[in-house]
Amino acid sequence: MKIIKLKETITASNDRDAEVLREELRGSHTLLINLMASPGAGKTTLLERTIRDVGDRVRIGIVEADIDSDVDARRLAELGVPAVQAHTNGMCHMDAGMTRTALTELGFREPDLIFLENVGNLICPAEFDTGAGRNVMILSVPEGDDKPLKYPLMFTKSDVLLITKTDTMGVFDFDIGRCTERARKLNPELLVFPVSAKTGEGIEAWEEWLLGETAKWQE
Ligand SMILES: Nc1nc2c(ncn2[C@@H]2O[C@H](COP(=O)(O)OP(=O)(O)O)[C@@H](O)[C@H]2O)c(=O)[nH]1
Ligand SMILES: [Mg+2]
Fold first, then answer.
1. What is the pLDDT of residue 145?
2. Does domain 2-141+201-218 have CATH number 3.40.50.300?
3. Mutate to test the pocket of ligand 1, among 38, 45, 71, 198 (most ligand atoms within 8 A of CB)
4. The pTM is what?
């Protein structure tokens, strides 16, 4: 497992760089998923579960972006998938240039599906197009169902909302219907999957979507 240090990209247009990267990924039939959420929402746990469940059907690669540490990339590399840990030099997001550097280190032509676990927070990652084919965000039950009201941009930019830790629903006042309604007001196309990475509840629907999307990028 490699650790790389990134610098913010100096570029005329991140959006254009992201488009170019997306096209290259399309050309190599690799679906890049940008996974965004706050710290502790359950990104790495969901990836562990997903790799265990579908890792024998699609070739998966991992880019872990963090300000420091390599614990997440190690956790996932232990499952036998290629993983790169990217350190963002204090920055709270990944841009397209940083993503390209990390993907080049990983080797992005081999995998069918690459997850970029973006830096944990609900604000900055949503502001930068990484070049990913799909944006997926996680909101965990303990965070509360009002988050679409407070952090609208990420809900607007995402294709999928995973509501995780549904096994804790009895302890927290979280209303899935209310959360979905608030999120869909911002983004009517948003797909919502309530899941628990712990019990496996709802995971099948997420993995079915994932395999379907990966197959589309193989065409
Ligand atoms: N009860 C419960 N705990 C979870 C679930 N998913 C993750 N966790 C816990 O939440 C904490 C943070 O998880 P992690 O995957 O490291 O979050 P990340 O910072 O978003 O990558 C850990 O203690 C996990 O065990 C879940 O579905 N249910
Ligand atoms: Mg993590």
1. 98
2. yes
3. 45
4. 0.96
